[in-house]
Amino acid sequence: MANHEIVMQRAVPVHDAADVIVVGGGPAGTAAAIGAARCGRKTVLLEHTGQLGGMGTLGNVSVFMGVGNVTGIYREIISEFLPNSLPGSHHESAIAPQYSPFELRHYLNGKLEKEGVQVYYHVSFVSAIMEQSRVTGVIANTREGLRAFEGRVVIDCTGDARVAVDAGVPTRSGRDEDGLTQPMTLMFMMQDTGKPVRQYLPEDCDRYEKVEQLPQGRNLHWSMMDNGTLLVNMTRVKGNGARIEDINYAEKEALRQVFSVVNYLQRTSHPNHILSHVAGQVGVRETNQIIGRYTLTEEDLTSGRRFADVVAQTNYEIDIHSPTGDANTDERKLDGYDIPYRCMLPADVNGLIVAGRSISATHVAMSSMRVQATCYALGQAAGIAAAIAIETDVPPADISIAQLHSLMARQGVLFAR
């Protein structure tokens, strides 16, 4: 019975209509909404949780990994929210600034409100509205039931390519040889109390005695903001976060690992630290990649390839957490490379742009481009591209790249050459 289907047909009221509909309020979605709104387009952002910021807030991944091009909206956010971490140049790396996810959540609420973006919280994507091969809006589940949101261009910033998949865009997932994706991690914080704390280890958890036994086989944590807070990235769960059973398992297993790691740290290096915060959901690194008009490859990264239709640049390393769940990580330094606009464009579906970690990229390439700074850059480009497509009445694939670059520059984006 599990494989049978139910056909649902019903009328859904239209709740709102806009020029640009952005689905997903993570780094790519927030930047896409800002980019489109600044071009004078009515913009609606749909977020399935109660907060913006994606894994940077929801997943407690509260560190902006160092990249070589701190520009555009991302640079603006750093200058306003973390001014002491702002590099002197657009092409100088920010050294992995840490931040409070709670403060970023509040900052982004205000930022989107000032930009005139209509944000709908607790609104989850259900289905793409299609006119032949063109996406014209989405149906979403809200606190008042199913509602439709109509738009002239839809930007998929779900991280899992949810809109694209429903619209019929082909996708790939994980490694070519076996489809395995990077594992998931549940981030948490510990707080220095100034005195030894009571150690707690639930009976179903593991007692780690040495670093080699840890899920990642290493200590990976940061001291935050000189206030005694430790940000910890040390759990690891094999699975694909876009699959029902995998994410169900990961939420339970990752939390079990949190208590095990906390106990290990208390017994070894941090006897005065207590568990103070666990992210509300497990962090997902990799799920689906669209098959786009161009696919970013490992060779593009290692050769430092440049593209005429560049929309984002980074030198963040190849960073592949073992897809088998083993305690090893493939880390390789890069000098810097371009990401072309075509990676965000489905080949045969119109009216849709995909931004964030689910762009068209191979398993190795996405391990580098998936970090927050790059997603902000991709989102900003997507929002501006959507506005141009509407203004010039052409499909997103046919916009002028010169005009795109001109408007990106007007919004503070500078490319290294």
General description of the model:
With 417 residues, the chain is α/β, with parallel strands linked by helices. The chain has two domains: 14-177 and 285-410, 3-Layer(bba) Sandwich (FAD/NAD(P)-binding domain); 188-278, no CATH class. It is 26% helix and 21% strand. Helix 1 (27-38) packs parallel to helix 8 (372-392) and helix 8 (372-392) crosses helix 9 (401-410). The longest helix has 24 residues, at 244-267. The radius of gyration is 21 Å and the shape is globular. The relative contact order is 0.19.
> Which consecutive residue ranges, at least 5 long each, have pLDDT under 50?
none
Order of helices and strands: EHEHHEEEEHEEEEHEEHEEEEEHHH
Give the C-alpha Rg.
21 Å
How many domains? The number is 2
User: What is the strand tally?
Assistant: 17
Topology-level CATH name of the largest domain = FAD/NAD(P)-binding domain
CATH A-level architecture of the largest domain: 3-Layer(bba) Sandwich
- At the first level of CATH, the class of the largest domain is Alpha Beta
Helical content class: 25-40%
Our measurement of the CA-to-CA distance between the termini, rounded to an integer number of angstroms, reads 58 Å
CATH superfamily of the largest domain, by name, is FAD/NAD(P)-binding domain
Structural class comes to alpha/beta
Count helical runs. 9
- Average pLDDT confidence is 96
Percentage beta strand = 15-25%
Describe the main β-sheet briefly.
7 strands, mixed
Oligomeric state of the chains present here: single chain
Principal-axis shape equals globular
